[in-house]
Amino acid sequence: MKSFIKNWWIMLLLGILFILAGIIVMASPTPSLIFLTTFFSVSFLVFGLFEIVFSLSNTHTDNWGWYLAGGILDLLVGIILISSNIFTQMGILSFFIGFWLMFKGVSLIGHSFDIKNLGISNWGWLLALGILEVILSFIIVMFPPIGLAALLIWVSVSMLFLGIYYISLAFSVKKIKNKIV
To answer: Which pTM does this prediction carry?
Structure first.
């Protein structure tokens, strides 16, 4: 803990770097999108390999076959993405975002009915949000550039908020350091 407090400035630097990265993503969307698309393509490949190794090293468990199947699927998606051109990768990434949001929206709708059955009165808001998420996911699937723009916005805003968090944490830790010393 003393080392953490002593090196408060590292969190400050991380915060500044995250804010700069968020600004760069906003200021140069095309190179950022190419980077993110390539990153996700390689991630599928690497995660697929890790899932396969994990499943084969855990064959004594009941669900190892599901991990193997998921790993093979991720590996194949990674190979397809990496062997495709960048525009195909961007399109696939947009569909991935759209279908992922669709799944989350349907799950939210299901959760709203679970909450209704528990007698909680505000379940309608959750239902409305789930329906809205499903509608937005259809828009992303039908118009892939909207999904790519949403991805860039999410990444840049997340980096900005993360940067603000690290900077505020750094100054809070610095205050503790000043009180201790």
So the answer is: 0.61
Mark the ranges of the chain whose per-residue pLDDT is less than 70. Answer: 1, 4, 181
Torsion of CA 103, 104, 109, 113, to 10 degrees: 110
d(CA 153, CA 171): 27
> What does the pLDDT look like over 13-33, one tens digit per residue?
999 999 999 999 999 988 988
Cα(47)–Cα(138) distance, integer angstroms: 27
SS3 63: coil
| Contact of 160 with 22, CB cutoff 8 Å | yes
- Name, in order, each residue with C-beta under 8 angstroms of 41's C-beta and a sequence gap of 6 or more: 78, 81, 82, 89
